[in-house]
Amino acid sequence: MTVVRGSPVAVVSFPYVTNADGSLRRVFLSNGKYCTESRVAGSRCYIPLDPQPDKSSVITLTRYYGTSTMDSNFSKRVTWIADRDGEASTALVEYKGKQPNPSLHGNAQKLKTPYVRTPADTMDKVLSSVAHGKPKAVYNERLLNSADPVDAPRNVQSVQDKKRYQQQLRRKATNTVHRMNFADEILQVLAMAQTDDFVRGVHVTGSRVPSVVLFTDRQLKDIRSFCFHRHLGTVLGFDKTFNLGSMYVTVTCYSNLALNHTKTGCTPTFIGPLFIHGHSDIDTFNYLFGRIASRLHDMNFQVSTQR
Questions:
Q1: Number of domains in the chain
Q2: Helix (H) or strand (E) segment spanning residue 185
Q3: What phi and psi values does residue 269 have, to the nearest 5 degrees?
Q4: The Cα angle at residue 64 between residues 63 and 68, in degrees rounded to 5
Q5: CA distance 209 to 253
Q6: 104 in a domain, yes or no?
Q7: Mind listing the pLDDT tens digit of every residue in the chain (307 residues)?
Q8: Residue 152: what are its φ and ψ, rounded to 5°?
Q9: Is 226 exposed, middle or buried (0-12, 13-18, 19+ CB in 10 A)?
Q10: 232 phi, psi to nearest 5 deg
Q11: 113: in domain
Q12: Are residues 78 and 126 both part of a single domain?
């Protein structure tokens, strides 16, 4: 028995051998051989048939089981037979339970009718037609007149969306915008260090990924006010948990004691200076701590230590 699962779907295959009198005998395929099944000491054993049946006498009964995602009590079973000539053109379809009503589209705001997806073949025709015609003409002349009403798009908006999608594909195909590599991005950051007040330092040394320190004067002002208060000082935290590809981002944070949540009364947490780096050793973090300490050199660190 072969089982292929993909929730909520399962496909099960059963091979049978056709006897001379036309009856069917259930067999099992194990290690490439047709076998009979028996139980020995509670375990299943498969004994190869001798001689092995001719492949022309073997047929496979396949069953497809599906369960509705809207209602688990509604299920479907499809059964068909395959032999050496291929799969049969006839299948038996069985349903169990009561078919659930189609749900509304997730983006529906005004419509109350159930959402039914337009067939994929219809949308393929729409995509090919809008390449040489206007959406309204395509919808009125080609789709409504030639397509079955059940298979036709719901409205002209569907055709317009396909037109817009096709235009986006064309723009992407002809897009020649230069994409920067890692070296270009580093050069851009170096240039920003001269003009951008947020980029406060880029540390470049041999055989190491450059490190970047980012902060604003307002963040340092808050740290001075809230993290070095003699009686109400808060903690300045460091968290290296963000991995952006080959780079890490260490985020500092502090509690803004000047604000309170109206419901909880707790002080909110604010983001402080940011540190982008490719290594996580002492030399790398010394650059971050050195830059912050140099801007807070006039603060009394001893007071914060004694708290």
A1: 3
A2: helix 182-195
A3: -95, 130
A4: 145
A5: 24
A6: no
A7: 444 444 456 888 889 998 888 888 888 888 888 898 888 888 888 889 888 888 888 888 899 998 887 788 889 999 998 887 778 888 899 999 988 876 666 666 666 666 667 777 777 777 777 777 788 777 776 665 665 666 677 677 778 888 888 777 777 777 655 567 778 888 888 899 888 989 999 998 888 889 999 999 899 888 888 887 777 778 889 888 766 677 889 999 999 888 888 888 888 999 999 999 988 888 889 999 988 888 887 655 454 444 3
A8: -70, 155
A9: buried
A10: -115, 20
A11: no
A12: no
Contact 275, 211 (CB under 8 A): yes
**Which amino acid is residue 82, in one-letter code?**
A
Q: Same domain, yes or no, for 259 and 220?
A: yes
Single-letter amino acid, residue 71 = D
Residue 274, in any domain of the structure: yes
> Residue 162 carries which side chain, given as an amino acid letter?
K
Structure tokens at 205: 């040394």
Q: Domain check: are 156 and 70 in the same one?
A: no
Is 186 among the domain residues? yes
**Which residue range forms the structural domain that includes residue 156?**
120-173
Distance in angstroms (rounded) separating the CA atoms of residues 35 and 54: 13
Tell me the residue type at 188.
Q
186 and 296 together in one domain? yes
Asked if 152 and 188 sit in the same domain, the reply is: no
Residues 15 and 125 in one domain: no
Cis peptide before 51 (omega within 30 of 0): yes
Calpha distance 217→273 (Å, rounded):
10
